[in-house]
Every structure is written in C-alpha cells, then in structure tokens.
Amino acid sequence: MAHNDYETLDVVLVGAGIMSATLAVLLKELDPGIKLEIIELMESGAIESSNPWNNAGTGHAGLCELNYTPESADGSIDIKKSVTINTQFEESKQFWAYLIEKGSFGSPKSFITSVPHLSFVRGHEGIAYLKKRFQALTQHHAFAEMEYSEDRATLAKWMPLMMPGRDPNEPIAATRVLGGTDVNFGAVTKHLLDHLAKQPDARVKCSQKVTGLQRNPQGWRVSIKNQADGSHREIQAKFVFLGAGGAALPLLQLSGIPEGKGYGGFPVSGQWLRCDNPEVVKQHQAKVYSQAAVGSPPMSVPHLDTRVVDGKTSLLFGPYAGFSTKFLRHGSYLDLPLSVRPSNIGPMLAVARDNFDLTRYLIKEVLQSEEQRLETLRGFYPEAKAEDWRLEVAGQRVQIIKKDPKRGGILQFGTELVAAEDGSIAALLGASPGASVTVSIMLELIRRCFPEQSKSQQWVDKLNEIFPAMGKVLASDAERYREVQARSDELLQLTEKEAALA
C-alpha cells in the first residue's frame, strides 16, 4: 500500500479485550451501518487483562468487597460506591442477556456461574465493622438478601473449607449473598468478538501495532504495522478508542491531546495461588473476601475464590502483589521509563513521595517465600497443604497517576475515561472493577463521544430495548430493580440459586 493510500472507517478500536469488544458490539447494535475495526497487538483477543487467569473473575457487584464500603470519620459506613458498582454490574448482565435472547451469543454456562459472595472478618474490630456494614447495606434493596452470622455452625455450612483447624476462641464473622457470580471475562470477550465477526463492516485484525496517531479535520490518521510481515498501512477514522489495557497510556501520549497531559501509570503485577485438587475444590463454593492488611493498598484485598473456567472448577487465592516496569504482561521493561514526560514527571514524583508505604508493601510482597504465601492462605484455610497449590502469574495492572492541585499528584485505584474535547478520541485508563462494569463505562463513553447520535430517536429506542432500566433507576426503584434482575438472571440461567448450589 502506498504511503498516501488509506482506508476510511468510522471507528478504530485499539486492543481486543472486553472494553473494545463491548464498545464495538454496542455501536453496531445502535448503528448497523457503522464501519469499524479492532486492532490487536497479540495473535488473538482476550490475552491480557481479559484472560480468565489474569483477573479474579468476580462479577463485582459490591456484595463482598469491603474496600467499596469505607468507614467514615464519624463511624458510619459509606455504601454509595457499592450501590453504583452493583447497579452497573446489573447493566452488564442486561447487555449479555439481550445478546443471548437474540440468539447470537453462545451459552451463558460458558461464561457466568452462580457463586455466593461472602465477606469474612477476624477479630473484634473487624466484626464491629462488618456488622455496621451489614446494617447499612441491607437497608438498600440491592443488598436486601444479605445474611450475617457469627455462629460457627452456620459459618461451617457457608465455608466448610475455612473452618476446620481454626482457633475456636478466635472471633470471626461473615456475610453471605447467594446471588453472586463468577465470570469468565475471557469467554465473554471471545463471544463478543465472534458476534462481531458475523456483522458486515466489522473486523478484528490481530498481530497489528499502532505506530502513529495523527489528528486532522476528518478525525485521526492511524498508522499500523503488521507484526507478522512488517508491512505498514494507514486508516482514516472519525473516532478512535484506546482500550488496550496498560498500553492505553502510551497510546494516549502518542495522540498528543491536551486532555491526556499529566497522566502517568504505576504498574503493579499480581500473583495467585491456584488449586485444582478436586477433593479440596469441592469443599469451597464461594468467593470470600476479607480486609486488606494495615498499610496495604485496596487492590491487595485477600480473597479465596471459586473459579469456573472452560467447564473446570478451581480455587484461587490472592492476590500477591509484585512490581514490574511492564505495562502489559507481554510488554517491555521499558514501558514505565518511556512513559515519563515533562507533563507527568511532577505528578509521578509526588506519588513516589506520598506512597512510601505502598513501595515498602510491594518490596515485601516481591520478596515473600512460598512458606510466607502459604501462611497468608492459612488465615483463610488453616489446613492448606503446600502440594495442593501452585503459583500463577496474573495480568499487569497500571494504576492511574494524575495531577492534583494540593499534592502535585495522586495515585488512583479504579478506572478513568479520558476523552478529547471534540469526542474524536478516548482512552480508558486504570484497573478494577473494570471488566464487571465495562458496559456502564462504554455507555458513558457513547454519551460523551457521540452526543448527537445518543439523542437521536434511533439510538434512544435501541438503548431502551437493550437496557430495560439504567443504573440510576435501578439504584432508586426497588421494584424495577427486582424485575430487571429476575429477567437477566433467567436469561443468564442464574435462577434458583439455592438449587444450583446444593
């Protein structure tokens, strides 16, 4: 292809993970005539953060994650974040249920499983906090089915693997919600990409690297190198989405948009202990989250999880944090140093200054021995045997560093959408609860970057068809919440949870 010979498309999406796949399918549903391409660096989609072994697979719904319900200075529990995440996950379920109902999305059994979500605490302080959290959450209709117990016989039924061998005098408590889920986000992504492949004017190209982003009056000229044969091509696109996980930050910097200035990335790698021994696995049917150790960051919240991947059930415990200068698991050690810019060096240095605790925590985690990792696991599962568990390396997470007027820079745990003022390009930065709330994030992107079309009757009608109720309605209207949840659960075959768990 000659240098000035290029193809014209409406939308280019970089990265074939759950974010780009979701956005591409949503856009094709809203406007079947849209022309789009997903560009993926690896040989197939869902290899990085969307891969089922690179994330916890928790259908994050705020049911068990204690870091989403912080205790305020006056001792009250703030449940706002849990309610938001819960209703956003219900939006994701509505989208998947809609695609299943259309008959173009494979079986829900391949990607979603009913798994109770439990919060587990040890010690009097932990119990006092959990009790207050339970009282605050159960006043909201989204958490009305939550149960609380300190009774050891009850706890032994809820988490049979975790009780034998425990000190009988240790104060412990737990909450349980039967309606939790385990989600294989890699399988969801593959279903989305397969669905997309059947649509006209939609394609996914793998082993392709974006080497240039040039703004012009028509949108963006995207330069692409084929990693397999070294050839180059160019696409003219009206809109570009940078949904490439850890690689989104360098691409945002490559675009040069002023809205991207000042952002930096702090990469954190993760490790898990994994157990495939069926005798152990069958004794634990739950995702059990606890409190992070004092001084450790929110992404270090320990949990013992049931995982269902490709029809096989395993247990996962962790995460154990690590540090690498790579922005992707398959990235380069130069990713972090090459991301430093005059505009973000101030915020990055401010974060380094203010986060000595985090640095110390990461160094301690990296230097942990196998025995020390097992010791942490035994806080959950006292009779754990070393031979049943093996260490798995998880995906890279790049936490956001952004400018802050007071401190110079802050480290942010979560996700952030950065878009150009004219809506022609957007990037998604950050990590958890990411995959669970992808649909809500992409709906926000559509509202911001396609403002005119979003107001058109065609798009409004289609969105109402896909989403019987949006998050704000679900958060305030108990009856609507239950209706919509029941419909989604039926289509996703998450009904009769008790029977499924027996």
From TrEMBL:
Keywords: FAD, Flavoprotein, Oxidoreductase, Tricarboxylic acid cycle. Pathway: Carbohydrate metabolism; tricarboxylic acid cycle; oxaloacetate from (S)-malate (quinone route): step 1/1. Its EC number is 1.1.5.4. It catalyses: (S)-malate + a quinone = a quinol + oxaloacetate. One of its GO terms (molecular function) is L-malate dehydrogenase (quinone) activity. InterPro entries: FAD/NAD-bd_sf, MQO. Its cofactor is FAD. PANTHER family: L-2-HYDROXYGLUTARATE DEHYDROGENASE, MITOCHONDRIAL (PTHR43104). Belongs to the MQO family. This is Probable malate:quinone oxidoreductase.
